[in-house]
């Protein structure tokens, strides 16, 4: 560590250079389209499934919330299992280590998504059991598709700035998917004679689009740095991989921070439907919000690579969380109609775009840090550890609204009490704003990787690899 600090202090003298650039514009666009497809498939559950459970399937809100809690915790452990499996696969085809999963998992994901929004007319107990099983199976297959997708970046490029750009493209694709899902879903539902039919048709449309996007990504991304086949690990070697995870301080910090920020983001996405319907009494506001606020996330994703050329990633991340917190706190006090709702939420989502974009770049940096620190390189395990916390955040985002809505006396499709209105408002703004402030404190105080330090680490890691190759 002392040598690393000395090298960092003398970074200007020794002029540490980045790795070569290996990603084309076509690759970047394909990677963006891939995450757009991920979000067509994934966001249906985060945005609309709780409302489908309560208002269409007729499940009590507290029970519906437990589906998210249990299913997402299950998903988190599935992420770790899939990450371990991916890292230690013995049979790697010419298609690559990660790409094939996008090809084979796409259609099952689409079918499972449709199954979640077509609950049969069972008893409440039967519907609840069906919801648990369908959503947990969907989450398992999504892990099999998404863990390789996110783990692939270190094999696409070793260049830090290029990783920032891929993270930016990924964020643009993801939020285009979220924007289109937010803008397009409700109008499709309203066009159909009943909500039940409307939800089913809308989900089928987005499932087909999601599958096509994932296939396009598979066909147009490239694993430049081939991963050698590993011999079968012993139990002791597997234990060492897991021990290395918990020694990776940047990974721990960014995972916990993401638990805060992503639960805020997902909870807002869930609650905004309730807020528009019952507080603003304007369901069309959700579509307008999707266009303006999520559009600002895209603006942030474009801006971030330019900012990270001039400022350290930590500083850019903190600036985004600060903007996010300000937007939400002001929104709680001053939102009175659709216009002010969109205005303040747009500010918050712009700040969110900084954090969302940089998460993907920073987690790739954690892979290199882990290899530098322990000698163990585990792209899939590192990424799945990170997504484990994202799944926990989704569990929180699905569970908390259901519990709070039940606590404040929410009744579906009825005039809400003042207590219920206050609860919905607090969920929409205060929850998110307060967690953004905690994220700022953690990044500033605990996250150890600066850009200069990462370049030193990357240089040492590459030197070790070259030395090992020479010996072999």
UniProtKB/TrEMBL annotation:
Membrane topology annotation: Multi-pass membrane protein
> Where is it predominantly found?
membrane
Q: Where are the transmembrane segments?
A: 101-123, 129-151, 172-191, 197-218, 251-267, 287-308, 315-335, 341-360, 381-408, 428-449
Q: Name the source's superkingdom.
A: Bacteria
One biological process GO term for this chain? sodium ion transport
Give its localization.
Answer: Cell membrane
Recorded GO molecular functions are:
symporter activity
- One Gene Ontology cellular component annotation held by this UniProt entry: plasma membrane
Which Pfam families does this chain map to?
MFS_2
User: Do the record's keywords include Oxidoreductase?
Assistant: no
Instruction: Provide the alphabetized UniProt keywords.
Output: Cell membrane, Membrane, Sugar transport, Symport, Transmembrane, Transmembrane helix, Transport
PANTHER family registered for this protein in UniProt? 2,3-DIHYDROXYPROPANE-1-SULFONATE EXPORTER-RELATED, MAJOR FACILITATOR SUPERFAMILY DOMAIN-CONTAINING PROTEIN
Q: Could you tell me what this protein is called?
A: MFS transporter
Give the source species. Answer: Ligilactobacillus ubinensis
The lineage, from the top, is: Bacteria, Bacillati, Bacillota, Bacilli, Lactobacillales
